[in-house]
Amino acid sequence: MEIIYSLAIGVLAGSGIWLLLRPRTFQVIMGLTLVSYAVNLFIFGMGRLSVGAPPIIESGTVVDVSSYADPVPQALVLTAIVIGFATTALYLVVLLALRGLSNTDHVDGTEYNS
Amino acid sequence: MPLVLIVVLPFLGSILAAILPHNARNQESWLAGIIAIVCAGLVIYTAPAVFNGEVLVQNISWLPSMGVNMTFRMDGFAWLFALLVTIMGALVVLYARYYMDPADPVPRFFSFFLAFMGSMLGVVLSGNVIQLVIFWELTSLSSFMLIAYWHHRQDARRGARMALTITAAGGFCLLAGMLMIGHIVGSYELSEILASGNMIRNHPWYIPILVLIALGGLTKSAQFPFHFWLPNAMAAPTPVSAYLHSATMVKAGVFILARFWPVLASTDQWFWIIGGAGMCSLLIGAFAATFQQDMKGVLAYSTISHLGLITLLLGLNSELALIAAIFHMINHATFKASLFMATGIVDHETGTRDMGVLSGLRKAMPITATLAIVAAAAMAGVPLLNGFLSKEMFFSETLFVDQTSYSSYLLPSLAVLASSFSVAYSLRFITQVFFGKPATDLPRKPHDPPHWMLFPSAVLVLLCILIGIFPEQIIGSILRVSATAILGDHLPAYSLAIWHGFNLPLIMSILALIGGISLLYVLKPLFRSYPGQTPVLYHFDGRKSFDAVMNGIDNIAYILLEWFSSKRLQPQVLWIVLITLVVGVLPLLDGNWLYLKQPFSFDPAFALLWIVGGACAIGAAYLAKYNRFRALALSGGAGLITCVTFAWLSAPDLALTQLVVETVTVVLILLGLRWLPRRVIEESQVTPLQAFIRRFRDLAIAICSGLGLSALVYIMLTREKPEGLSAFFLEKALPEGGGNNVVNVILVDFRGFDTYGEISVLGIVAITVYALLRRFRPPQESIHALENRHEIQTIDGNGLTNEHSLPKGILLAPNVLGRLMLPVITLISLYFLLRGHNLPGGGFVGGLIFATGIILQYMLSGIHWVETRSRVRPQYWISIGLLIAGGSSMLAWWVGQPFLSAISWDIYLPVIGKLHLSSVILFDIGVYALVVGATTFMLVALAHQSLRFYRKTPVAEVETNAEASTQLNFSDRVN
């Protein structure tokens, strides 16, 4: 589980970073999305992986802390997902504005010769 | 105490001088002259104490905790220099009064002149080395302003810039050296530093300190290899050259070398560096001076040469040489300033300084000629003048250098050679200008200037003669007290007598005189055929090298900027990624991370899941360039796999949120896809090799980053989890937070403030998106490409008018289903909102679900149809959401609790029974409302771009009439 999880994060991050370094705005937005998945999984994974133990407490039972997943990284990641969506939207709109202003989809706004 | 006064008065005078009117030559001169004389008087007032052997110190505390104090210290040597600066200042002021043209802006001149005088006095009277460097830099600055006085002239500007660059760079090195010395000695006070000579000489830092201080002194005194700024500084007015570039500023360099002589000298390195620089300057200066055409050029190179002589004497590591150096400092000041003044008079009266043009001025300006002849004779070293005495001391010192046999012959021979050139150029100076047939083609008719203009020059020449004939009486005690200040009480035996007997130095002087006269005859043809060109040396034009160095620095700066501070995005992102990679690799470097600490579990289904996920990610990366839609779909796939992972690994809230966000993101990006240009494989301007290298580099970085991140995650996952906050939240969520869903309780109760910030961010982003899209103008290509879309839509969906409530064609079934689904979707979203506290759900998920429902309607039925019927005004939902959330947080103030505390009520209703209400649900409702508003706002603003496009094109003229009735409705909605 741990191996697969780490490799999964690695693949997502690698693809994302490759795309981040590209010169087209659409590639960058895709890259940002993939990197944000990788980072969300990373933060979530810091609470260590546990299967079948969601942090929903049964009423009336004594709480045994070790039998639940770690709720703190989950709260962090939830916030991160929502704000990530907002910034993706913002980036997309900036991309469109740049496209309209400069007639090209290059990240620098002009097609370079080098 | 007068010391502070001596330094401060000129600065005050400088400010006063700046205020006086434009053409107040007399007032300015009186002001400057009086200040100079007063300062001189103050210096003389302290004479009895100084001559007694006292060192006067005046201390003003400034930053006692950092050891930074203003200390003024006057010992014999400083006294000598202060006297020199002030008296010379007074004389030059008198001279300048007559030299300056009535049209010249005089306030600027005298203001900077006085500022310079104050800074120079500060340099000599400073008792704290940091303070000394500050005044040093002030002298550079005021000299810069004085050289560039006639700033309309290009040579003045260039010369000033060159002087400032070189002397300021030297000042910087000097500061570094002083800091190092202060660090070794433990204090910046000059008295303590002067007592720590051995400590510094034996310290491992000795050579860097020596080099730095040497750089400071040599740049200021225009010594080899930094000598080329001085001839270029001759573009200054002659009073400036007389004061700064002969008597005071260039002497600051040798002053500092003499000052630090007890600290840094007596080593081999000192001998080679200082002595070597001095020797080279002596020779080069004398050689070049012989060939100059400009009178001031001769004097400039001659100054370089004489200062080289002084530097060489300082570098000889001998106490007698030091005394000779101080003696020559005094003598050089007198005759050089006098010669500069004579040059200025000639220039003023005849209009030219060119020695090829001038001739025979003896008849027209007899007094000037006499003064100049005497001063030049002093410069050449003619007996009975002061120059002769110091030259004699110089010769005798070179004979006593105890080095290997070859240098014991080399040094005196070079000294004689330099002196012959000195005689040659002095003779040439006089014979060219004052002797021969009177010139007929001069710009102005020459005559002797007003008496007061000659007065300063006369005073100085008189001094030359007096010191030459009665050295012991005039200058003996001053010299003794200065030397004592540096060397201590045990001075070596020397005598200032005129005649020491017929010894080797005398023979050397005679040889130099004869050699100089013969040189002049030998070189005469060269003067005629190549006027103004120094043989051999003219290849090494200082100014050209300086300009080349400056250009080189500019180019390097440009390249560095291109690399590190590029305006382009990709280099910046590359640097971010690279540095993060390097930082991230650091924990991996010790290598012992491969072993496991927790039991190893493997689930094949999970592996399969992520094989698909990994393939999606890589596919998206590969396709993003030419196949945007497919890439988007694949990245959506990766997102869904992430969602399943969250669900698998016990994070139901995350899975829900990720699912809905994924959906909305895909819709969002789809809305934007249409505006991007077609991606065709085109000829690129980059060579294939360059492109390949760049791609390979990026691929390598990406793979390394991915692997590194994997390794980091693996390390973390296989280690023991440290104690954190989770226990607190898990235990307190139900009893104190009142909810079973711990994640939700954390979000809206324990960490409610963070959530409040988060929804504010969402609101801000939504408004920003809207604002950015108001100004959006579609690019040219997209308008043309989408023109025929218009016809298609009138058939299917978006051409819905008010008469047709349902479209015809393929969108009929989805429309019916979608409209039926809307209430169900709303119900589900409310259900998730309300159950969030105890089961997976919450305000975010609920809000996103509702927003999805609304967007579904937009997608199916079109903007017109929805907006004529919808009451959801997203911008109001955003504000209402924030207000509700804020209000519920402030509710706690009613019961005296702090902001964002949760208060709960238990209500007993007749049928339903006990209801446990909490203000937290209000907060969650606020979140819900805001998420709905923000999401809808963003996507609808994007969707409206298609309408905006319609209104612009002429094709849609017909349509706009039909849309006119609907325009009012949506124009007050979103636009």
TrEMBL record, chain A:
NCBIfam families: PRK09094.1. This is Na+/H+ antiporter subunit C. Keywords: Cell membrane, Membrane, Transmembrane, Transmembrane helix. The gene is phaC. The chain crosses the membrane at residues 6-21, 28-46, 75-98. One of its GO terms (cellular component) is plasma membrane. The lineage of its organism: Bacteria, Pseudomonadati, Pseudomonadota, Betaproteobacteria, Burkholderiales. It comes from the Bacteria. The keyword Transport does not apply. Its main location: membrane. It holds the Pfam family Oxidored_q2. Gene3D superfamilies: 1.10.287.3510. It is a multi-pass membrane protein. Belongs to the CPA3 antiporters (TC 2.A.63) subunit C family. It is found in: Cell membrane. InterPro entries: CPA3_antiporter_subunitC (IPR050601), NUOK/Mnh_C1-like (IPR039428).
